[in-house]
Amino acid sequence: MRTSFDFTPFYRSSVGFDRMFDLLENASLSADNWPLYNIVKLGEDTYRIEIAVAGFAEDDLRITHEANMLMVNGAKSKDEEGQYLHQGLAVRPFARKFELADHVLVEGAKLENGLLVINLRREIPEEMKPRRITIQTEPTMPASKQIEGDKAA
User: Fold this and answer.
1) pLDDT (tens digit, 9 = 90+) per residue, 81-91?
2) What's the predicted TM-score (pTM) here?
3) Which residue among 11, 35, 52, 146 sits deepest, i.e. has the most Cβ atoms within 10 Å of its Cβ?
4) Which of 107, 106, 111 lies closest to 53, judged by CA?
């Protein structure tokens, strides 16, 4: 399944953005929308992901962060307490992936009131932050005298 956008014109005038175009391409492929989640921007460089995980305990959840990818997996252990007459809570196993931008760090996660809350912060290294370049001016030297070709001989 392809998106309705054709990125070919951008390939002609950009270099190194292949990953971004691939992300946009693949974004339309993820049709699974369970479990429900929110992505909240709290400040200039702080974010929060809230995932509805009612029925899951801390031991049932696994969060992994590696190379611009945040993966949240949930698998409920089988309960043998009784037979369900009605089971409205979806406690089936899930895997949710979030692509993270460069320099986004996971600060921590907590489980409260059926929500898994993951706090993120973008921390750009000092050497990558914009900086002003000063223009150095050098004193001008007088032009050197040159002997014209006709007169020298």
Assistant:
1) 778 888 888 78
2) 0.68
3) 35
4) 111
